[in-house]
């Protein structure tokens, strides 16, 4: 067979050598060692291990030594106790890898029919799956598809339908270098970073928690103007001693995974910010405790040691949150494309829209409908998977610096 003198990766003779079987140390070295000495050129090499089952493929430009390479591979596979497949071919995949995207799928559980629909939609879109990687086994199962030939915006819309029908979460983001490098991550606080609504905790001290909770729910669902609802709710706090703020600080509970999320982002050199329609008296302490770089929230007026029922200065509303994200990004010298926003309420929508990646976290329906992607599992550190960070990488980093890792419980099927 005549070998074409090609420099663009087409019309060349190839030999694909694949071994499969039980994984163990030294397989790759043994196989490649057996294939050495024949002046073959490695064009590609891929290896994957699933539940200790190995698949290793080496694509070679064999030159004139096809038969010798076949024999050497057979001897190595026999010695290793692995199955061998050798295929001769012509040409390598020189298809353009433009339109790179990362599709991250989260499920608890993640069922085969849901994954089948995702891969079918990617194919129908005209994109190619170049690589598949598992990012987590627990507390949710997360798989990342590295694809090419995609239009991110339209594929995001198409896969959103699958997410809704199958009860899974799917994020579609630009791939390649867009997935790497420093970012700014900005979080809402109430019902996002923490599990409660601070104003409801404050209202419980004056017996008006139910009334305030109802107004809060309507504001977060987009049924009421946020600023008007905030001022009305704060009025109910008039006369409370400022000491209740200390009690509320003690009562605040972080969302599961919040510390892990922030800790991991900081390890990566990312900048983290909090933007809240709540109160800086609580948000500022949370930021200090977690080592967060920026914090913006409303400030309560306190006179003679008591709350007056008013806020001081400009209200941090829907537009104010988006403005804060832009200002944080400008301070950090980052383009908006390098920002991530996470929130749950209607007053987060502008911020989610402005960010390079907007994540609706256990959000109200109106927010899930409009956000780029949604996460509906109760673990805030699941957002890390959307950035391509695996559970193993998180836990290895914790182990390296002695941080105790508390694994979340594995959800029951159908949770």
UniProtKB/TrEMBL annotation:
Residues 406-415 have a biased composition (Pro residues). Pathway: Amino-acid biosynthesis; L-serine biosynthesis; L-serine from 3-phospho-D-glycerate: step 3/3. It catalyses: O-phospho-D-serine + H2O = D-serine + phosphate; O-phospho-L-serine + H2O = L-serine + phosphate. The keyword Hydrolase applies. Its EC number is 3.1.3.3. Residues 396-415 are annotated as: Disordered. It comes from the Bacteria. Keywords: Amino-acid biosynthesis, Hydrolase, Magnesium, Metal-binding, Serine biosynthesis. Gene3D superfamilies: 3.30.70.260, HAD superfamily/HAD-like. Its cofactor is Mg(2+). Residues 16-92 form the ACT domain. It holds the Pfam family HAD. Belongs to the HAD-like hydrolase superfamily. SerB family. This is phosphoserine phosphatase. It comes from Terrabacter carboxydivorans. The lineage of its organism: Bacteria, Bacillati, Actinomycetota, Actinomycetes, Micrococcales. The gene is serB.
């Amino acid at each position: 067979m005549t070998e074409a003198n090609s420099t663009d990766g087409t019309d060349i003779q190839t030999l694909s050598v694949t071994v499969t079987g039980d994984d163990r140390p030294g397989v790759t070295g043994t196989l490649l060692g057996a294939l050495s000495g024949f002046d073959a050129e490695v064009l590609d090499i891929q290896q994957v291990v699933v539940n200790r089952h190995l698949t290793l493929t080496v694509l070679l430009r064999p030159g004139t030594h096809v038969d010798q390479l076949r024999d050497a591979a057979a001897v190595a596979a026999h010695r290793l106790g692995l199955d061998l497949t050798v295929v001769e071919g012509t040409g390598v995949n020189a298809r353009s890898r433009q339109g790179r995207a990362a599709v991250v799928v989260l499920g608890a559980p993640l069922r085969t029919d849901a994954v089948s629909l995702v891969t079918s939609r990617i194919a129908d879109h005209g994109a190619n799956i170049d690589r598949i990687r598992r990012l987590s086994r627990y507390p949710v199962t997360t798989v990342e598809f590295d694809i090419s030939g995609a239009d991110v915006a339209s594929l995001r819309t198409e896969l959103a339908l699958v997410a809704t029908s199958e009860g899974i979460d799917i994020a579609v983001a630009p791939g390649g270098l867009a997935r790497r490098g420093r970012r700014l991550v900005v979080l809402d606080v109430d019902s996002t970073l923490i599990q409660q609504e601070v104003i409801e905790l404050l209202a419980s001290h004056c017996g008006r928690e139910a009334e305030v909770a109802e107004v809060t729910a309507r504001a977060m669902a987009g049924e009421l103007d946020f600023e008007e609802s905030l001022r009305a709710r704060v009025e109910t706090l008039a006369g409370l001693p400022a000491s209740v703020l200390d009690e509320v600080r003690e009562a605040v509970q972080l969302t599961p995974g919040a510390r892990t999320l922030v800790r991991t982002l900081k390890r990566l050199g990312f900048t983290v910010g909090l933007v809240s329609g709540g109160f800086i008296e609580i948000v500022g302490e949370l930021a200090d405790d977690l080592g967060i770089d920026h914090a913006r929230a409303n400030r309560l007026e306190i006179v003679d040691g008591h709350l007056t029922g008013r806020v001081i200065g400009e209200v941090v509303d829907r537009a104010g949150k988006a403005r804060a994200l832009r200002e944080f990004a400008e301070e950090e010298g980052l383009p908006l494309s390098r920002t991530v926003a996470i929130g749950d309420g209607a007053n987060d929508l502008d911020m989610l829209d402005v960010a390079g990646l907007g994540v609706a976290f256990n959000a109200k329906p109106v927010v899930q409908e409009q956000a780029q992607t949604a996460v509906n599992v109760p673990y805030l550190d699941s957002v890390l998977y959307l950035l391509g960070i695996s559970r193993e990488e998180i836990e290895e980093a914790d182990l390296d610096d002695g941080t105790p890792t508390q694994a979340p419980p594995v959800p029951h099927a159908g949770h």
